[in-house]
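Agenda item 2: heme C complex prediction
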Amino acid sequence: MRRDFTFWVLVLVFGMPVLFVLFIAALNFIPCGFAMDCSQVALPEIIHTPIPTLIPASMPIVQTGGAGTGGAKCAVPAMTVLEAWVNAGYPETDAFQFVAANGATCEATFDDVMVLFKEGNLWYSGAPACVTCHHSNITAAAANLDMSSYAGILAGSRRASPEAKGNDILGGGVWLNSMLYEVLTLPSGNQRAMPLGRPPGAFPEGGPVVLLGQQVVTP
Ligand code: HEC
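Presented output:
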């Protein structure tokens, strides 16, 4: 009886670790085979469903006639639009014209310009919108510049108070002289290159191509 007891204790003491190691080994080798990178694994055969891939349905493009009535948007580098707007005397309500990337003559309004300042992810993927920092609370806004409205943009930067006039960022209607042009074309890494924190090569020269405005004369 005593000997039996010792025997079973020994079986347990030495048998359990062996069983444990066998168990772990089985977990590893049974599904994966003997290669340590599991490359001998036998994958189940792929059974294709008998349904062929469906061809995605699409709506026919609405064609509404000749130039000017199609309502076609214009693909254009962002700075081309800003340039046209500033050089046209930065109108608030009147439309201004610019030439799209494909040579079409297009028309846009200040609302289209605002998109360039108000939308995040626009100048490059991950870009904060200009108005994130240049918002209407001008004492707290970066460079005391409010880009969230027409009045704010015209009032300019470095304003001491909401009533005060600041530095003109529109170059008095000459794009190449404007601070807007300067900060958008400064090389990335410059602490005045906008949108602030722009990584190198974030957008091509002239800015990202955006879709806005209306085509008035097809090329
Ligand atoms: C993450 C915050 C941030 C974003 C986003 C941002 N700015 Fe700025 N901006 C600043 C700061 C900070 C300054 C002041 C930089 C300095 O003077 O060193 C500045 C300065 C400027 C200035 C110059 C003002 C002056 O008087 O010096 C202009 C113009 C400007 N930003 C336009 C823009 C435009 C346009 C966009 C969007 C394309 C933009 N900013 C996006 C933070 C930002």
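Discussion summary: The mean pLDDT is 88.
Owner for follow-up: CH.
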